[in-house]
Amino acid sequence: MATIVAEVLGQRLELETEPGLFSPEHADRGTLAMLSCAHFEPGMKVLDLGCGCGLVGILAARLCGEGNVILSDVDPLAVEVAARNAARNGVGGVKTAVSDGFSAIDETGFDLILSNPPYQSDFSVAKAFIEKGFNRLKLGGTLLMVTKRREWYRNKLIAIFGGVRIHEIDGYHVFEAQRRDTRYASSRAR
């Protein structure tokens, strides 16, 4: 077990990690790049999709209110560590879920969904996050996603959301897509 200390958006977080979790020795640069593009307000409903040790969701809970945030991951160890870290950082009231994508998450109407998907594998996980995430956002809600790859994500987000902003930060691509309609963009083109 190791401890990470991160200063993000004026918040100091202390996070324990475990071997086998994503970025177990330091705050991931891609995640920090994504957070630099995030806009949090009190009362926003936020989903940390693929929470790992909980950095993103715990920060969101501090800024939006712990009852408004869900941290989820397919790895039960990640969810257990994230829950402990939430309590350690004063936001123990966050919701957590062991979930393969959205499979165990019933909530909708998110203002913000944040994800650093596993982009070293095929695109099936990211595809599901984008397509299902669109339907879980409220109108005007935003999906923020960070990867090292650009073209596939740009094309997929445009096909689903109708547009995407891309921020180039520290060698990463941070994608910002807003839900502006109730239907996928590609279905309107037919």
Map the helices and strands.
Elements lengths: L1 E7 L2 E7 L11 H9 L8 E4 L5 H10 L4 E5 L2 H13 L6 E4 L11 E6 L8 H13 E11 L3 H11 L3 E5 L2 E7 L6 H4 L2
Parallel strand pairs: 3-4, 3-6, 4-5, 6-7
Antiparallel strand pairs: 1-2, 7-9, 8-9
Helix pairs in contact: 4-5
Question: For the CA atoms, what is the radius of gyration?
Answer: 15 Å
Give me the side-by-side strand order of the main sheet. Answer: 5-4-3-6-7-9-8
Oligomer: single chain
Order of helices and strands: EEHEHEHEEHEHEEH
Count of helix runs: 6
Look at the helices and sheets and give the structural class.
alpha/beta
Roughly what is the average pLDDT, rounded to an integer? 93
Helix content: 25-40%
CATH architecture: 3-Layer(aba) Sandwich
- Which topology does CATH recognise? Rossmann fold
Distance between the termini: 52 Å
Low-confidence stretches: none
CATH class: Alpha Beta
CATH superfamily: Vaccinia Virus protein VP39
Largest β sheet strand count, sense and barrel closure: 7 strands, mixed
What overall geometry do the principal axes of the alpha carbons give?
globular
Strand runs, count: 9
Our count of domains comes out at 1
Tell me the β content.
25-35%
Structural description of this entry:
- 32% of the residues lie in helices and 29% in strands.
- It has 190 residues and is of the alpha/beta class.
- The chain has a single domain (28-188), classed as Rossmann fold (3-Layer(aba) Sandwich), CATH 3.40.50.150.
- Strands 5-4-3-6-7-9-8 form a 7-stranded mixed sheet, sandwiched between helices. The chain has a two-stranded antiparallel ribbon with strand order 1-2.
- Helix 4 packs parallel to helix 5 (151-161).
- The chain is globular, with a radius of gyration of 15 Å.
